[in-house]
């Protein structure tokens, strides 16, 4: 749930939700295939997008919205681990953003600017995103117990992103190209590090056709002419990111973790110049609440000159000042209550400074900064059923 009692174009509330059912099958136990597993996931999404319907900006405050509000097959892959689990191969139908540029801390937040990944990568590339699956293959190799190389290739098929797709059309006839993400990472856990950390440097090459952020097919501006956007080919970008536990008072998971990311484009005409984000998550802020978390994050999305060219032209022709806000800043403060072993409740407060006006280029006044009140409810049905069968507390 999310509501904007202050700011935006108008004040409303909106609900968005997701149901996920899946299975991880150990093929060694089932049929004797050593190191092989099969992953299956089906999702259902429903609800409305408050940012689109009321606030007016283009980045959602409800991370669970998008990808077609429908039921679809989200994952069906075969994974093989070899050389004492140092080599991981996976292929089938899946999504890139769950494997690359990811962090266990991003979806501590409800804002889509952070969860599931920093939005820059979706504005400036065709990285495939949950829950819209396509053909893929990836390889991950642990060079040491802490250092790995990771690369993949993902079919880009934008026809799969609508409400009418259910994930069972496996044809490549309407494919737009291939997305190639890659990453060098350093990762530790509680098993081999008192203060676990993840450091990643990576990038991507987007070998697809994409729409110019402003120019139309005749060389004018889309925001003025209404003509289709000019089609371009190939773009790339890079990022560095980290999460680092900096305080841990005992041997439990209690402690404070900081995280951050910086992203920029390398080639192509892109909608954004750069993206910066920083945040923190404290696990067990109260010692007697070991599974609660307190989180805060803030990010800056900087629109590119290419994206603002058409906006400025449309405003000039409408008799308005050509300038508009380039930097949209989004932030969130939340607290997650582990209400039951199977239920987590996350009330949150979000604030948007300079909501972008890409949807409303000729609005006479800037969209007012928006204050958003949110509530995120997570129920683990699998754990709930398991506990009921075993007679354990819920």
From TrEMBL:
| One Pfam family here | OprB
One Gene Ontology biological process: carbohydrate transport
What GO cellular component entries does it have? membrane
Q: Any coiled-coil ranges, and where?
A: none
**Taxonomic superkingdom:** Bacteria
Family, according to the entry, reads as follows: Belongs to the OprB family.
Its recorded name reads Porin
MF terms in GO = porin activity
Which InterPro entries does the record associate with it? Carb-sel_porin_OprB, OprB_Porin, OprB_sf
